[in-house]
Amino acid sequence: MTEFPAEGLCRPADAMSLYALEAAAATGQLLQSTALAFDNERRLRFELAGMPGLMPFEECADGAAEGLVRDVAVLVRVGRPTCFVVEGLRRDGQDRPYLALSRARAQRRCREEYLDRLEPGQVIPCTVTHLEPFGAFCDVGCGISALLPIDCLSVSRIGSPADRVRVGQQLLCAVKNRDEQGRLVLTLRELMGTWQENADCFHPGETVVGIVRSVEDYGVFIEIAPNLAGLAEHCEGLQPGQAVSVYIKSILPDKMKIKLVVVNRNLRSDIRFEPRYFVREGIIRRWVYSTPGSRKQVETVFRQPAAAL
């Protein structure tokens, strides 16, 4: 587990005593609690150790003090676990005690001590926060988002990120690169094995579950693992996303082909394949999906920034 986990995975502060919270403030420990309100003074409110925990708007996210964060990006934290560091015990204008909290400080530390030091190809944990047609957004630490593009979710083509991942799912991903704003872009497919690694999990003569991914005039592509699909003969009535059982007729490594026969098309519709990781840690420099004898070459080279070369 990283020192800067995604929101929802940090140390809960709800059951901590005031003494423990003050000790956490002294060490800058990362904590979390559920935000109970976004009040008229644009503060997130919490309840900690029997007293209010207050987070002024400028402390609700890195960039809020500079006007780079909209209110809606903060008010959606209400009812959700929210990370922070405790700034200390303060008193308001009526001499009532409260705990001053800062999510912005936690995020700045996360960037400086963790995210800014990551290299392309480095494997990191993350949590899916929401889905868009073009990809999944993931929390890579302290509520900081990174994009996992749809074409990086697997080698098998999918119609929607929801075909592969769901909100709240914890993943391992590799750092693909950084966008023009310096934000991380992630990839998952390189962690889920090469063609041969996936094909070695199956044998001709087996009948297995598959998911229809595309229907063409010449046949139906059916996924039997997130990074592995085979081809069955054209079969009327099949639709992308439909679960079927298939008989594995043959596996041809030199052509990277698997021949399938549809056996049963009346399976339940909620079947999905969870990621099977062949890489779980470290840094990937180059990944070759294709088999040595295949004419089609699929590979990823994780290029280091010029300053690191």
Strand-and-helix sequence, N→C?
EHEEEEHEEHEEEEEHEEEEEEE
Q: How many separate helices?
A: 4
Backbone structural class: mainly beta
Mean pLDDT across every amino acid position: 94
Provide the gyration radius in Å. Answer: 24 Å
Note the overall shape: elongated
Task: Note the main sheet.
Answer: 7 strands, mixed
* Relative strand content: 35-45%
Number of beta strands: 19
Low-confidence stretches: none
Give the strand order, joined by hyphens, for the main sheet: 1-2-6-7-5-4-3
Distance between the termini: 29 Å
User: What fraction, in percent, of the residue positions are helical?
Assistant: 10-25%
Mind explaining what this structure looks like?
- With 309 residues, this protein is mainly beta.
- The protein contains 4 helices and 19 strands.
- The chain has helices spanning 18-27, 71-75, 103-113, 195-199; strands at residues 11-12, 31-34, 37-38, 43-48, 51-56, 81-91, 97-102, 123-132, 135-139, 145-149, 170-178, 184-187, 207-216, 219-225, 228-232, 243-252, 257-264, 286-288, 299-301.
- The strands form 4 sheets. The chain has a 7-stranded mixed sheet. Strands 10-9-8-11-12 form a 5-stranded antiparallel sheet, with no helix packed on it. Strands 13-14-15-17-16 form a 5-stranded mixed β-barrel.
- A hairpin with a 4-residue loop joins strand 16 and strand 17.
- The longest helix has 11 residues, at 103-113.
- The chain is elongated.
- The two termini are 29 Å apart.
